[in-house]
Amino acid sequence: MNTSEYENLTYRQHTTRSEADKAINSLKGILEGIRMDGEVNASEIAELQSWCAMHQNLINRNPFKELMLLISEAVREEEARPELIEDLIWLCRKYEHGSIFYDAATADLQVLQGICHGILSDGIVADKEVEALDRWLEDHAHLNSYYPYDEISSLVTSVLSDGKVDEEERKRLLAYFHEFAQLTDTALTQKIKSETAEVKINGICTSNPDIRFDGSTFCFTGLFQRASRKEIEQEVVKLGGRVSGCVTKSTNYLIVGDSGNPCWAFACYGRKVEKAIAMRKAGAKTVLVHEYDFWDVVEENRQ
């Protein structure tokens, strides 16, 4: 074997393992999402079958054969499905604990994406699912500042702030989850698109942001209620931060002004927010911060 062949084989081994890790984490998330409402229906089982079809190339790798056999059993044995879901989750966890390529944050984010997929797989966002997702988010607070954890956390917190989930909020959740889940059921996909056609979600600010001024770069967008843009920029400089007029890869924080719209967390604030969200999806660490949270941190730093 020459050097080129060896390097290609080594690359493929690492790529395949990374692919396997991602597939397992995705499945784990789908399973977690499915069990959140305590029921397992035919649409959800169909999504598990689709997962199997998508990862047939991994069937000879441990533990994919076992996972796919369990899913096949879940297809056949309707009454045993809840127990089989638990078995599948257990097997996923057993795999991740033995993975030398396992990265906790990356894996948890993949699980979160899978949870969105699992919740969405029957086209219904149930109250129990939202409440269970809220608990999961609380248990994984170490993901704060990672996309899309902070956006989802802020959205769920807002939805549950009055202790109930109304129909408009349900549509908003449905629309947002659909951004992360590519369902194989085309009819269901079209139904969701139709139901959420009027819902616009272009970016959500981080809840309880950890802001560090010294050496950080700040950018501003929107209309500010408490002070003028110039006064806010002066506060940042006083606390050791830098001010930029545009969002770049080096932007640490984009401060979003409160326009007076009570739905600020889901509104579009123009090109800077759009650019920041796009950059976050590409891996940038820019944190979107609402004006109110920004001033809370400023006051703390003044003391």
Automatic annotation (TrEMBL):
Pfam families: BRCT
Residue intervals of the BRCT domain: 208-303
Name of the protein in its database record: BRCA1 C Terminus (BRCT) protein
Phylogenetic lineage: Bacteria, Pseudomonadati, Bacteroidota, Cytophagia, Cytophagales
